[in-house]
Design brief:
Elements lengths: L1 E4 L3 H18 L7 H17 L6 H19 L2 E7 L6 E6 L5 E3 L1 H10 L6 H9 L12 E2 L2
Parallel strand pairs: 4-5
Antiparallel strand pairs: 1-2, 2-3, 3-4
Helix pairs in contact: 1-3, 2-3, 2-5, 3-4, 3-5
């Protein structure tokens, strides 16, 4: 069971500031279409991994927040705080779709991708949602989608 709450104004502001840093890192602007921003995040992440470069936490947080905002801007998702199974230690801040059935923690996702040996699926995930190809889960379940 998922407990879903709105994020505070303070956290929202912090996520906005992080996203602004992400745009600056990518030399993009707020008017850049979400799909192009996701593509740029994907490309930079692949470059870091191909060259075996460590991504500083500041960069990781900025790009993760920026990635989350693209789901908000491009897919009409929203930021929220989720706790699963009434366990505060089992919670995260991320983006949710319209009925809260899908959840993505984009900062955590960036971190996982940087340490994994698999692909960099940011663009694939974004495009699948745009095409209506996301899995279907119960409303308010906040099921992880990565």
């Amino acid at each position: 069971m998922a407990e879903i709450n709105a994020i505070s104004g303070e956290i929202q502001k912090e996520l906005e500031q992080l996203a602004e840093k992400g745009l600056a890192l990518l030399s993009l602007s707020e008017t850049t279409p979400p799909q192009e921003i996701v593509a740029a995040i994907t490309e930079l992440t692949r470059d870091y991994r191909a060259n075996q470069r460590l991504m500083d936490d500041d960069v990781l947080y900025a790009l993760g927040a920026l990635l989350g905002w693209q789901y908000v801007e491009g897919h009409n998702w929203h930021w929220g705080s989720v706790v699963w199974d009434f366990d505060e230690a089992n919670g995260a801040i991320g983006v949710l779709n319209h009925d809260n059935s899908l959840f993505n923690n984009p900062i955590g996702w960036m971190d996982n991708i940087m340490v994994s040996e698999g692909g960099v699926p940011f663009m694939l995930s974004y495009n699948m949602i745009a095409a209506g190809q996301a899995p279907v889960f119960d409303p308010n379940s906040a099921s992880g989608l990565y």
